[in-house]
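Anyone have tokens for Beta-galactosidase BoGH2A? Sequence:
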Amino acid sequence: MGRKFKAWGVGLLAAACAPLLASAAPPATGVPQTEKLVFGWTFSRSGSDLASEPGFDDSGWETVRIPHDWSILGPYEKTNPSGGQGGYLPTGLGWYRKTFQLDEVDPAKQYLLLFDASFMNTEVWVNGNKVGERPYGYISFYIDISQELNSGRNTLAVRVDNQQAPNARWYPGCGLYGDVTLISKNKINFDQWGVFVTTPSITAGQATVAVEATLNNGTAKAHKATVESIVLDRAGKQVASTKQAVLLAANGPSVATLGLRIETPELWSPESSALYTLVSSIKIGSKTIDTNQTRFGIRSLRFDPDEGFFLNGKSTKLKGVCEHSDAGLVGSAIPEKVLRRRLRILKEMGCNAIRVSHNPRRPIFYDLCDEMGIMVMDELFDGWGAKSKHDYGRHHFKEWWKTDVKDWVRRDRNHPAVIMYSIGNETGIKDTHNISAEVKKYDTTRPTTGGSLFYGVDVAGFNAPGGTPGILEKFHEENPEKAVVLTEVPHTLQTRGFYRTLTWWRNRSIMVNPFTAYGDKQIFFDGHERYSSSYDNCGVRITARTCWKRTKETPWIMGEFRWTGFDYLGEASFGGGSWPARIWNFGIIDLCGFPKDHYFFYQSQWTDEPMVHLLPHWTHPGMEGVGIPVVAYSNCEEVELFLNGKPLGKKPPRDLLDIVWKVPYEAGTLKAVGYRGGKAVAEKIFKTAGAPTTIEFAADNTNMAADRFDISHLTTTIKDANGNFVPWACNRIDYQIDGPVELLGFDNGDPLDVTTHRETHRKTFNGLSLGIFQSTDQDGAIEVSGAGILGRTLFPESTTVAIEMNRIALRGDLDDARFDITYSVNGSKAVRYTAPFELNETATIKAIIAKNGKPFLTTESTFTKGPLPRITSPNFDTEGSDDPQTFNGPKDKEVVGKWRLTAIQRGKGEVKKVAPRTFDFDGSGSVFTLDGTERNLYGYWWYDYPDDVFENPDDAGVGKLFMYVTDQMCVMKLDSQEAETMSIASRFSTWYFERGKSSGNE
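Reply: yep, here.
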């Protein structure tokens, strides 16, 4: 079934894969030809190994385009093996096939097949011959297929195996979710990703550009060649040129180095993302043999342990977010215009940096970050060992990591947006594999870091410990030579439009940063336990306000990458979540791209354009007279609040960067006005909404191009009769789509809504939902219509019901049609709908919308009469204020000293003896491992026990001792007052210690 094969890594020299040519004649003139293989693929989730054969019958398979993520199509199911980690979406095996024509296979050319991304365990066949494989699902790779191609018809088959799940701690997607490109070029060529551009010297008047180019000679004869390079600015004007003679050794690689100078360079930055293009060519005599274009930027980086991060010599705070690789309803196969919209939303918030957590992204992501001026912490691995049942770390890391490092760095090193390389996440505080050294083989211009990785890297990256009181400051004091960045801090949670006044901490047993609560009792009881308050009072260890205040006021903290920018699919079982929770909403923007309140907090801190934002909304029927904390976020000097025209006070921002009033609720208009220099420069208005009566459509593109790639985002908003947004509306909308357009899906941001995305109906969530559409190659009008039965679907006494329909053109004009609505209640005879009506009993209402007298659209909804549930959570601070704990040292002398690990228990298994290992708990709160003569920081500890006036402070007492090991929080319990033994209960195991016996100074 085909000949034997060898799998090649992306970064391996292409010449090593190419056949040797006996001819001594100079190669033909030519430039590389690239073709993205987007259309004409067939796909099946049930293909057999015979699918790799050219003659296999795939006529019954589905036709798809690439990029493609079949998992996001669903359905969401509780029994899917991905579980809550993968958002309950399906996994499995996928086969792709494509046939393509080559008029003639030129023996003087090399043919490469480039895969941008494929999840995971990818195997590739060309004309029945296996040509390569790649297990990692987040890496780009290419394969030399020169010897496998035929003149005429060729068959490409790709097997993507995602059967063993979960294989990530989040939703990874399934399939060829990145571009597939066929490249043909002369056998004398620039190596794929082999041109490296750096700017070692930059002044206002001149920039030096250094070029290192790896050249391949796949012929049997050495050649004298010239490498010529020119630099074009963003207007296409040539600003520099040079050339270098080089001897191309036969059958192998050569390296050319060139230098150029650019006068008065434009620098790349988030404010001005100037880009240049290096155009290089290989010439033999007068013939151009190969060309290469490399886009780059001119910018300088400095990471100072005392003063923080400097971009182009200017002190710059990293205003960053962490981002997973899905984009909500489109999954991982993100169209360019969808990705561009998401990045634009972040930029408008003031975000200037993204950490790609915890894996590389597709090349288009870095291209857009270059263009839009967004700095990137480029991250390669989640872990270096198992972190999920069937992940890369468990099965493939040891064999593949060096290849993956090489390919990752070589692919991404020319992007000016990339400022740091992160080599791992919460996989140990030390670079035990010396991955940093492997990175620096290919690029020494950027530092290495990692999530909760402190040693063996250039920049110490703090995840969870960075949010624990005192730990970050203690690390800086002990390691003053180390630059520090918050790689994953803060962790806060919000559900759009959902509020609670009491503080909620994910884990009440860990140390937190206290703050004054927004209220001393709970006043909101709607929603669901899995929803999270949109006040800044729901999170892990530290709030957004406390964290950013510390970051901006502490010079040596370079910045922060908060968890996360957008909500992401998966990780839903974390924190006790269960079906149907498909996410846990850490994002400051929901799955649809609708901002939550935290978005505006960051905008108030990260932007200069005058703005003011209010929370919560001002529609709270039944709460008349209840004092509601009203919060403003603003970058103005003062903000004044008005209720129904009455001034409630003008205030500057508090020390914690917000402004708070307590306002007895009454319906009407709530307005905030921001002032600078005494002049009103910004305002925000909320009006109390009545019953929902209107469906409003808005699209960001109403003239879609017929090019198969254009995108339109359609927002559905529920409003009342006066045009006021209804912030509680959760009503089903049924859609009718007419014209040459493809529905990519609907969503609403609700963490609990597991409706399949390509259903032509979706409920709104707190007043909003989103649909994404992609054009075809056909021209003609495109119209989307929607209808819904609006009102409170659960009501105690009665509710107002309205039946509404609307439509929008995504291309062309709406026709002049007549629409009529009829409806029935509990199967009654249908009557014509004319106006909203009251409903005071449980009922199922069905409606038919007729267009020009013919049935056009149907919709249905059930309304239930009954008591409203009161939702609360045991993790709320029921006392209304937080325990004012701070990290202030160990608190117990008996724990200080050396301890020897004697046994370990995994899960509920048997306790087993282990190889002796000594730990040193020092008196300042640090824990060190003592392995031979080496002493390494392991974590931090502190002791907590109830106040007892009769307790001896030198006695261990009966309290608990805590220790942080990266993100693992261990709770220690002393077994005796003499503290001769102790155990550590963590999330994964229990460790047993006794006093160290091998050292003389216990």
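The CA atoms of residues 440 and 446 lie 9 Å apart.
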